[in-house]
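Mods, move this if it's the wrong board.
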Amino acid sequence: MNLTEMLLSNDINEFKMPEKELEIKRLSELYKQPFIITFRAIKPDEEEEIQRDCMTITKDGVDIDSSKMKYLTAGKCLMNPDIRNKELQKKFNAANYMELLKKLFLIGEVTAIYEQIQEISGYGKDKVEEVKNS
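Not the wrong board. Structure tokens:
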């Protein structure tokens, strides 16, 4: 069976974005129970949009706002808690989901979330393997 036949023979519903859970220990300690967030891999079109939003063309080249990229990526991929929930935003006096994200998580936590999103999105070592001809 070639790869095209393999893809055609599988159920498309099995082809979904990977998800992952991560415990935020600081918030687990605060709430005295596990604070486990859920997020998914980033979709290619979402990543392209985020990259465009975070790039500035200057006379010296291109500047990338890496902090903004981390927050936008985490905001796009975070599934639980639902930071788009208006009631939750109101509870934390946040005007929108990005403001709520900044109120809930420390920058180091956002960086850890971002790195995990990158990992499940296919970045990193051991994601593909070169086939050696014998």
